[in-house]
Amino acid sequence: xxxxxxxxPGERCRSKWCEVRRSGIHGRGLFAKKRIPxxxxxxxxxxxxxxxxxxxxxxxxxxxxxxxxxxxxVYIFTLNDHHDIDxxxxxxxxxxxxxxxxxxxxxxxxxxxxxxxALRDIEEGEELFYNYGFDLESWREHPCRCGxxxxxxxxxxxxxxxxxxxxxxxxEVRAKTKAAADPKPTNRRRSA
Length: 192
What we know:
Helix content: 10-25%
Largest sheet: 3 strands, antiparallel
Strand order of the largest sheet: 3-9-8
Shape: globular
Radius of gyration: 21 Å
Distance between the termini: 76 Å
Low-confidence stretches: none
Strand content: 15-25%
Mean pLDDT: 89
Number of helices: 2
Oligomer: single chain
């Protein structure tokens, strides 16, 4: 099977289960090289182990950079109460797994290591996805492009979906109310 390997110079994919390819969702993604059985640990999410203060500093710096360039935002993954993993390193191809509101993978932590595992059987050539689990602090800044029938329009953990749907509905009502209150421009000429 010929593949569209999309590794950049210096990058590596450290998994026998997947490889980096171009993705229609967001630039690049990880794809199954062969059938992956449900429950299989596919790839470890690796990077710099940093404390929460450094995590906060790097996170905000990366968000500012992303706003300037349109590049992906933050690759910081919560590890525990004291440390996070900054996965923005070339050796971490797991950082390229895209978000979906209907994921086929999930993340879990075991012995201070972050793993991505198959939620169900994944077929060869299928793109890998997990739900990033973002909270609603800055939901407007994270539109979702997954295209799933279950998509809620923004990247958020499923436990936040009921509240997110309420916020979206309130925003739509405000937009309609504002549009109805604004005077409509007229193209008619005045006659003297």
